[in-house]
Specification:
Layout: E1 10-13, E2 24-28, E3 33-37, E4 41-46, E5 55-61, E6 76-81, E7 88-92, E8 95-96, E9 101-104, E10 109-113, E11 123-126, E12 129-130, E13 136-138, E14 144-147, E15 158-164, E16 179-184, E17 186-188, E18 205-211, E19 226-233, E20 236-243, H1 260-268, E21 271-274, H2 279-285, E22 297-299, E23 309-310, E24 320-321, H3 324-328, H4 330-333, E25 342-344, E26 354-355, E27 360-361, E28 366-371, E29 376-381, E30 384-385, E31 397-398, E32 400-406, E33 408-414, E34 422-426, E35 430-438, E36 441-449, E37 465-467, E38 481-487
Parallel strand pairs: 9-16, 17-25, 18-21, 19-38, 21-22, 32-38
Antiparallel strand pairs: 1-4, 2-5, 3-4, 5-6, 7-8, 7-10, 10-14, 11-12, 11-15, 13-14, 15-16, 18-20, 19-20, 23-24, 26-36, 27-28, 28-29, 29-30, 29-31, 32-35, 33-34, 35-36, 36-37
Amino acid sequence: PGHVALQQPVGVQFDHTVNLARATITLSPAHDFSLTRTSTELLIVPAKPWLASTAYTIHLGEVRNPRPNGSPLRRWTATFTTQPQVVASYRVGGKEVEKDAGLRLKAAIQVVFSAPMKAAATTITINDQPLPGDRLKWAPDATTVDVAPAGLEPYHAFKLGVGAGETATGDLLTGADPINLSPVATEPSNGASGITADFQTVPPIEVVLENTPESRPHSGLQSADIVYEYLSEYSASRLTAIYFRAPPAEIGPVRSCRMINTYLGYAFGGETLCSGASIGTLHYMFGNPQGDPMVPGSIEDFDKGAHFFRVNFRAKPHNLYTDGARAARLRDEWRLDNPTYQVDPPHDDLQAGTPADAPSVPLHAAGYTYDAGSRTYLSFDHGTPLTDAINGGDQVQVKTVVLLHVPFHDAGWIEDDNGGAHSVWYDVLGTGAADIYSDGRLVHATWHMGQGPNQPYGQNHQPVYFTDEAGNVMELNSGLTWVHILGNGQPG
């Protein structure tokens, strides 16, 4: 090809027998080598591969000529050029990436080469192990290859590299530093959120809402991306509505935080709004001597930023509200790093699981009926339709209902001074069983959040994700997702 391969010896040949016993030879630039000598040739063998795209000059001297009256060769130079650089780089989702990049599970992964390659002589590796050929798809010009690793799971990083490579003209790969990719969870969005494919995840707004007869109709439930429901006390449930992009014009009625809000706040990396909390819960919301950090957001009892307002059509304490502008201001007032997880833009439904009746949740006095026309679940509370005042008073339509089965225990303090009810502590870090209903179908899944049950909540920045019965990471359908937190064996 007009150049020297990286490991190729370079020979200097003579037209007749010479005496090389005292011959001197150097290279510039300097490079370690060994010599093989014969009577008509010097063979320069590189101790390590030549540098690519480099012109080496051979300086040869003191070659004796054994012929009568033959003149010695005292100074002779020649130059050879090594092969060009052949490097590999990486693209994720169509963008060049560097080391330690996050990876959306659905994102395309490509290895890009600076020259056409021989596919059969080029090895793509995952954690230094060759990837099977059925996981690779080469482009017709052989300069890129699509990589499809198997069994990826959020927050389980892996190393992507190139073990060896050879171009179509026989040159060797010269540069292919591996990169570390960390798959991240993908959270479902509601179509009302306006999430697009290029959406950069920002700290979500997490609003704690009352769920008693006096609180109905609610405002802002239908616009949420995800709603968590959990027992508060006295068999009454409470809600946390999560908005990934823009909260709606009215959200309420807002009520006090519970211990689960410390976990949700840090898992989703959001700004939490609530009316107050018990002294025991505030001990954690504001941070404590054990090192648990303060939960970002605003609590109305201590609020100095006018993030809440009272309506005149309800009596206290059921008349506290916030709105999109007041709530979203927290993103500028309490600056947080953007979360690492991705928010899924709306997509066509995925038909996972087996046909099943709509779920009933006795612990929360909640139930659903499936509406095949809209492919959503109509929500009921205590047998009464759950409605949204700013959605025309329509019944709340849920796309996906999740029953999250978790351990729980008594938090150890009184949550309600009037009746003496103790606070409930849900252990939502680790893994456990989940039932996922969507499009009239059911998947018996496994939930995953954080690094284990002993991880402090303030150290977890990984929201929940699910795997199906086969262990594959699930992609939830687009639309309002409603998660019922159900304590294992919890009495109503």
